[in-house]
Design brief:
Shape: globular
Largest sheet: 6 strands, antiparallel
Strand order of the largest sheet: 1-6-3-4-5-2
CATH superfamily: Riboflavin kinase-like
Structural class: alpha+beta
CATH architecture: Beta Barrel
Number of helices: 2
Number of domains: 1
CATH class: Mainly Beta
CATH topology: Elongation Factor Tu (Ef-tu), domain 3
Distance between the termini: 10 Å
Order of helices and strands: EHEEEEEH
Strand content: 25-35%
Number of strands: 6
């Protein structure tokens, strides 16, 4: 798996987060990272997750990399929402692949405002994958 066709890749283990996404109906898999580790600016990306402990199965999604300023607290993370996915993958090894940058990380006035923007981001990411030629 070369990184040349991705903006960045990062291997890690899925950890428990603050469960904010779950409370909004947008549960995320959280992968800790060190700021600067991906070489990409904090923000929202079209991405997929390779489930290394499940035969390298690939699940598409959207991720936020950063310090989650609207709901601060905790360590910087990569939070990835996976499309049509409800499995428990805590403590599993994964490879995150960044496909396309959507927008910078933002601070929203309310959690509801954030939720609405995330829903639009999800639509944009699904459209990206729908339009993208299959190469994997």
């Amino acid at each position: 798996m070369g990184t040349d066709k991705y903006l960045a890749t990062l291997e890690g283990v899925v950890v428990h987060g603050k469960k904010i996404g779950r409370s909004l109906g947008i549960p995320t898999a959280n992968i800790p990272f060190t700021p600067g580790q991906t070489g990409q600016p904090d923000g929202v990306y079209v991405a997929d997750l390779v489930l290394l402990d499940q035969g390298n199965r690939i699940v598409q999604g959207i991720l936020n990399q950063g310090s989650h300023p609207t709901v601060p607290g905790g360590i910087p993370t990569i939070e990835i929402f996976l499309f049509d996915f409800q499995e428990d993958i805590y403590d599993q090894r994964v490879l995150v692949r960044y496909h396309s940058y959507l927008r910078p990380e933002l601070t929203f006035a309310t959690v509801e405002e954030m939720r609405l923007v995330i829903l639009k981001d999800i639509q944009d990411a699904k459209q990206y994958f729908q339009d993208k030629p299959k190469t994997d």
